[in-house]
Amino acid sequence: MSGSKKKKITKAERLKLLQEEEERRLKEEEEARLKHEKEEMERLEMQRIEKEQWNRLEAKDLERRNEELEELRLLEGCFPEAEKLKRETRLLSQWEHYIQCDGSPDPSVAQEMNTFISLWKETTNETFEEVIEKSKVVLNLIEKLKFILLEISPCDLQDKDIIQYQGSILQLQELLHLKFNVATEILLRQASTLADLDSGNMEKIIKDENVTLYVWANLKKNPRYRSVRFSETQIGFEIPRILATSDIALRLLHTHYDHVSTPHLVSTPSKEDTSSVTEPVKDDVDNVEKAISKEVEEKSKQQQRGSHLIQEEEIKVEEEQGDTEVKMSSAEEESEAIKCKLEMKVLSETILAAQLLLVENSSEKPEFFEDDMVDLCQFTTLGGIYHLDILELPPQCKRVKGWMIVEICKEGLQKYTYPPETTEDLETENAFPPIEVTLEVHENVIFFEDPVVARWDAEGKHWRTDGISNVFYKPKERLVTFSLEAFGPLTLIQDAHLNMPYQSWELRPLDVNKVLLTVTTVFTEIQIQIKENLCMLSSIKLRDKKHISILEGKWMTPIPFIIALKEAGLNIFPTRYSHFYVIINNKVPLVEVKAYRQMALLSSAFAFGWSRWNLLCNSTKVVFKVKEHLTEECTETPNWAILMFSGDRAQRLKITEESEAFSEALKEETEFHSTLYHMLKDCASKEAMEKVRSSNCQFVNSVCHMLLSTRLLSYS
Description:
Layout: H1 11-75, H2 78-100, H3 110-122, H4 128-151, H5 159-189, E1 202-207, E2 211-217, E3 227-229, E4 236-238, H6 241-244, E5 248-255, H7 271-307, H8 314-358, E6 379-392, E7 398-400, E8 403-405, H9 428-431, E9 435-440, E10 452-457, E11 462-464, E12 468-474, E13 479-484, E14 489-495, E15 504-511, E16 514-520, E17 524-531, E18 534-542, E19 545-547, H10 558-567, H11 589-602, E20 606-609, E21 622-628, E22 641-645, E23 650-652, H12 676-681, H13 686-693, H14 697-710
Antiparallel strand pairs: 1-2, 2-5, 3-4, 4-9, 5-6, 6-14, 7-8, 9-13, 10-11, 10-14, 12-13, 15-16, 15-20, 16-17, 17-18, 18-19, 20-21, 21-22, 22-23
Helix pairs in contact: 2-8, 2-14, 3-5, 4-5, 7-8, 11-14
């Protein structure tokens, strides 16, 4: 019984156990402390080594910075060279136009434009076909004037020239529409002679590449004939009884261009924006010119003093004069070279200022718009303008004894007011219901969502969406049907930022001075080829299916190409207001511009691509993928490096696209550099760097312009 009992621990034993436990605890704490101290010492030593290495790399980078920036400046001389070639091309184009003597005016010469406009105003009784033919010349002139305002540097344009060009554009647009109205009146006077044998009414369709006219004249006034459909089309109207019994004509004039929207007359960089950059350099040029003239004057005085020496020393005088002339010639050549160098510097600074404006975000959002008003900074008109009009039928031509007699109304073409302003006792809603309209969407325009129909408010000078109901879109037939309360100019609109932000992008070389830019968005994948000073739409994929566009295979200079893509509904070109409507990864403008310029310089031998880490670094830095790309085999082995660039420092990062977290840690055995060019030069082949140095200046400039216009680093 007593053996089975548990032995009691004495007080001394308990104290001994507690003492042993305390000693064990203290020993563990000591071991932990020593381990922590060791780890901390190792960490501090590692930090010290890393800091020393970092300082060494920074010192090395600082030591060669001036040399690298000077080499980059020489390479970036391609931008002013490309601008000089543009100017020479414009002058050559003007000369070729002059010697052609084809009767068309030079749009940049005010006298020629005024004469052209005046002469066409005086021309009367033109048929619709004749006006259409003339419109080709007019539209070409308008296009040329817009390109002048967009392409020419603001320093080369005076304010009076800008006002002149914008005024000419407005005059031509207004005169062209007036001519179409007059030609429509002439056509409607002959409606009775063009009447259809079956219906007794007149129907006419005139098609052209820029304009399509649909006209229906109600000659029979049959109250049961209320469905108007133009032959061989689905385009037409469902008209109420009151119109079916009236002397009216229905006109649908579809212009494939937009001359209605309040013109944001070409936003060119202002002189104030560029003067702050270029003024110091211009002062240098002026100082050099003064020094040159002073030096030449002094040499001339020396020559004159030499000519007054006595006759006995004539031979000596001639020798001294010869030496003086050689010195003067040498001084003039040297000063001319300095002047040329400074002028190129002015041009370089002007180009940089203009490029900065391309990536500038507006600080103020456009003025407040009502719910039914269309904000043209957020939306864009597509497929041209549909001018829908109900017209009063003019007096008809009558044949009398071999003569054609017609009454000419002084007022010209008159619009029929529907619904009328005074409705007397009639119930407006029942007597004047909305008119059902069916329109065909332009075949060359892509709508990624159902188009929105908008009407032009002539008083407010803006587009509105009220007064339009029951909109139904058939994408396969490309037909849009809706009910319209009042006629006037109509258009189809789409969100201008549907394809922003981009999901990814890639820029890779194809051949010598030729690259492929691929931009992938939610709806589409767009591929653009760039060579020399030209761009071409290579392919479009819609929902993983190839889409055929009329623009494919057409080479154009960058600005016309960008405008053509926008007009086709393929807008991947942000404006200065786009950041108000799109969530973007905004970068400091100067960093963004420097990155695009240097990427363009390297694009003939290196491929660049989107990196997910660009979103995680701050606004003062950009991150992207890069690899050497000399042959097509390079695409099969994607060995991308991750580069980070802050405008004045480039470094290769240790992380990859598959890494779990973002880190700015430097890749082992790599260094800092002041430029992307020298960063890639460290690991590139001689062949690649030779291709970069021999790149065509126009090609580099075109690639840079496309990068600046798409803003891939901020909008993806």
